[in-house]
Amino acid sequence: MIKRKISVGGTVKWIIALLLVVMQVYPFLYVFTSSFKSLDDFQKLPAYAMPSALYLGNYITVFTKSHMLTYFKNSIIVLVGVLVPLIIIALMAGFALSKIKFRGRKFLLNYFLLGLMLPMQVALIPLFTIFNKLGLINTYAAIILPQIAFSMSYSIQLFHSFSKFFPEEMLEAAIIDGCSPIGCFFKMVVPMSLNSIITVATMQAVFCWNEYINAYTFTRSTDMKTVTLGLNDYVGSMGLTDWGATLAAITVTVIPVFVFYFICSKKMLAGMSAGAVKG
Amino acid sequence: MQKAFGKKSVIFMFVFPAFLIYTLFVVVCVIWAGYYSFFDWSGVGAKTFVGFKNYIDLLTADTVFRSTVWHTLIYTLINVAIQVFGGLLFAILLSRIKKGRVALQTLYYIPVVISSVAICQIFSKLLSVTPTGIVNQLLSMINPAFATMEWISNPNLSLYVTAFVEAYKYLGLYMVIFYAALIGVPGELSEAARIDGANVVQEYWNVRIPYIKPVIVANCLLVLNGSLRSFEFSYLLTHGGPGNASELMTTYMYKQAFSSMKYGYGSSVAIMIVIICMVVGFLFRKFTGGGEDE
Q1: Shortest CB distance from B5 goes to which of A100, A118, A145?
Q2: Residue spans per domain, chain A
Q3: Chain B CB contacts of A25 below 8 Å
Q4: Pairwise CA distance, residues B255 & B235, whole Å
Q5: Which of A75, A175, B44, B208 has minimal CB crowding within 10 Å?
């Protein structure tokens, strides 16, 4: 009797769990399958049907008629341009604020954490006027610099809390052996913080890859657009949206994120919960 | 170690780069926006100092701004409801399942890593009317009238649809956080409850959920802070429309500044957003005891 009850409960749980999977995953599955639909399929088949044949025309449109490869190049440049300085600078600050005792350290940390509450849109008007004066509109610098600055608070917060567990004895030993502080940082702190670096980097990489408003405001020409902006290329042009091409473009831009996510999901999920549960 | 690292020059070297870029681009820009908010300025030509006129207009004359504040509040409430309570339910379910947890968690989290632009594109297809999108096709099996149901261009619904799409994207994020908190509840506690004869519902309601209350409060305020600054979904999915039906404070600010070229007025909207976000942020720190107090 009891055994039966448990198995019924277990089945219900699994049904709910799978329904939720459908809800969370189906939209992307729909995009993927529909990207192989021809115009005919879109008009004649119901939306949930599978394509009648594997039609590759949409992908050919994406790679020949739009500038997808340029967008990818730009996104990768921005990604590297944001991540490398962000990680080094934030790790240095987070490590110092956690391990070096000096006056004003708590104040400085709170000053950095203030940024968590400031929405980026607020800075856009001043940034736009400054970049305009300096002739930086439509350059990589204008896309990269504000993103580094606005990702700083969260990265410092994470590195600060991860650095608490850093063993000080190792540093003591290295200093006695004549290692300079900055040498210690690059030779010991960086390699030993590799886990937290990967956690922060994967999270920030996803944020950066998906970033919209900053790139949208500071780019003017097609050759500077990032992947996220490029997705809107197929919307509203000539009043008609090319569904097939849009869905194919979404698939193309989402696949790298998926691959990256499935490789790093453990690290990312850990980082997300570490940042918030600890508070 | 303190001796070698405690030198002023070393501290400076470690902290200054972060301090510089953060101060220049975040703090100075926000103060700068505050300065612009006292001017009537179109971005080019001369700035005219108008004192508090922008703020007075904003608070007394601008009915659109008033409705965007109202929309933002409704939007935020919907997001808190779905993301926090939905996330908590997901997490409880996940904590009850023994096999395949990791796989389920990974799948549930997928929408979080997809860009808002892509999510907006996908939903505009799913909710499309011409040609009939999936949602309407499925609903029309229940009642054929649903086939022509407007979602995105329906002034009564567009705000809710937008809020739902944002909540959909971030639901998985809060689930992961709640799940980590739930499995962090000491086993002795729930065991003791079970020995005392508590069933599953009682065990969660009386033991586990009270134990993770700080995380629930923290998440509520994280969602609050996130939805108050939400921009992409309203801007891309509904364009704030139809009319101003789904316009939020952030999209209104953006349009005032970059479409209507009212930089001064837009800046005063920006400062109002900062004030609201700061108030929420300070409440956040008060309730959670501040990230730093050990």
Answers
A1: A100
A2: 59-278
A3: 107, 110
A4: 10
A5: B44
Look at the pTM and tell me if it is higher than 0.90: no
The domain spans of chain B are 58-291
Nearest to A227 by CA among A72, A77, A76: A72
In terms of CA atoms, which chain B residue is nearest residue A235? B121
The DSSP output letter for A69 is H
The pair of three-digit structure tokens given for residue B35, joined into one six-digit string: 């300065």
What is this model's ipTM? 0.83
**Interface membership of B10 toward A (CB under 8 Å):** yes
Q: Which residue of A has its CA nearest to B111?
A: A24
Residues B258 and B274: their CA atoms lie apart, in Å, by: 19
Phi, psi of B40 (to 5 degrees): -100, 110
A40-90 residue pLDDT tens? 777 777 777 778 778 888 888 888 877 888 899 999 999 999 999 999 999
Whose tokens are 């904003």? That residue is B58
Which CA distances in Å does B216 have to A170, A239, A279?
38, 45, 11
| Residues recorded for chain A | 279
CB contact under 8 A, B14 and A149: no
Query: To which CATH superfamily is domain A59-278 assigned?
Result: MetI-like (1.10.3720.10)
Does the distance separating the beta carbons of A262 and B10 come in below 8 Å? no
What is the topology classification, in CATH, of domain B58-291? MetI-like fold (1.10.3720)
